[in-house]
Specification:
The chain has one domain. It is mainly α. Helix 3 crosses helix 4. The two termini are 28 Å apart.
Length: 157
């Protein structure tokens, strides 16, 4: 499992560093297949790591981390999308500015590594953040399913 985690960290780093410039300058930046490839490799490794945690008997903390991080990613993506929709009308509100700063930080951590996929979709950055929920929601439910199956087995014994 350490190899899987090391591979996940390495592919995350490559995908993150590759997609920093395109995500920050998206409408003006010309994206190519290199960014898409980095994002897809990270996606495959992320799904493989989740499957490895699901199929093997990992420590409880592995599933808790997957569930926690995927839950934060979903909330952050929805928050980023929602705040970008209303930011023009309430840009002078200090509470919205603080919430937008937090949402932008979560965007950098959780959405930016997948931004190469936007080379195919060519959608707005905020809408792409919302689309990444499609990637994180199954991870959240898979980790919940594994915990539920484990508790059902212990009750049946």
């Amino acid at each position: 499992m350490r190899f899987v985690m090391l591979l996940l960290i390495m592919t995350y780093s490559v995908a993150f560093l590759t997609n920093v410039l395109p995500s920050l300058t998206y409408p003006d930046f010309q994206m190519n297949g290199y960014y898409l490839f980095a994002s897809l490799v990270f996606l495959v490794v992320l799904l493989g790591a989740t499957a490895a945690y699901f199929l093997h008997k990992p420590r409880k903390s592995g599933l808790n981390k997957i569930q926690l991080l995927s839950g934060i990613a979903v909330v952050g993506a929805i928050l980023y999308y929602g705040l970008n929709q209303v930011m023009g009308q309430v840009s002078d509100n200090m509470l919205f500015n603080a919430a937008h700063s937090i949402a932008e930080f979560l965007f950098y951590i959780f959405v930016m590594p997948f931004f190469g996929i936007n080379a195919l979709l060519e959608v707005d950055v905020a809408f792409f953040a919302l689309l990444t929920c499609i990637l994180y929601v199954p991870l959240f439910f898979v980790s919940m399913l594994k915990k539920r199956n484990k508790s059902v087995r212990t009750e049946a014994s």
